[in-house]
């Protein structure tokens, strides 16, 4: 068991510093807890106890994920009380850039696993939003057949 955990940690480290940008990104935000934490932080500053209760996450796991997200520059830890010391977590610009990706993942989840009433996103007028990932140059939606990966 220890050997397999060590191997997993080594694989993650390989991706964190590897050449593949997908691997680099997923090594930082690819676990479910981190993505859900970032999702919640996109709505308002995140406080530890509220996040723990909302997500149903164990305190030790939440602490590890928050520490990692702060270290990777996706969240900023800010004091909101000095007595007792209390902190909240807010998205950095880097963290805010992840939010559209999370919304696209959510759209995929609604499309393929949306049985029952699932949440959805709305714009400032309250109209539903359906995320779409496009090529910024052409404005065309991305699709597997329309792109390829090139190694430097």
List the helices and strands and how they pair.
Layout: H1 2-16, H2 21-29, H3 32-41, E1 46-47, H4 48-55, H5 59-71, E2 75-82, E3 85-91, H6 93-96, H7 99-113, E4 121-122, E5 128-129
Antiparallel strand pairs: 1-3, 2-3, 4-5
Helix pairs in contact: 1-2
Structure keywords:
single chain, 152 residues, alpha+beta, 3-stranded antiparallel beta sheet, two-stranded antiparallel sheet, 7 helices, 5 strands, 14% strand
Folded structure, characterized:
Helix 1 crosses helix 2. Residues 1-8 have low confidence and may be disordered. This protein has seven helices and five strands. The strands form two sheets. The protein has a three-stranded antiparallel sheet. Strands 4-5 form a two-stranded antiparallel ribbon. Helix content is 49%, strand content 14%. It is α+β, with helices and mostly antiparallel strands and 152 residues long.
Helix-strand makeup class: alpha+beta
Mean pLDDT comes to 88
According to DSSP, the number of beta strands is: 5
Low-confidence stretches: 1-8
Order of helices and strands: HHHEHHEEHHEE
What is the molecular shape?
Answer: globular
Short description:
Helix content is 49%, strand content 14%. It is built from 7 helices and 5 strands, in the order H-H-H-E-H-H-E-E-H-H-E-E.
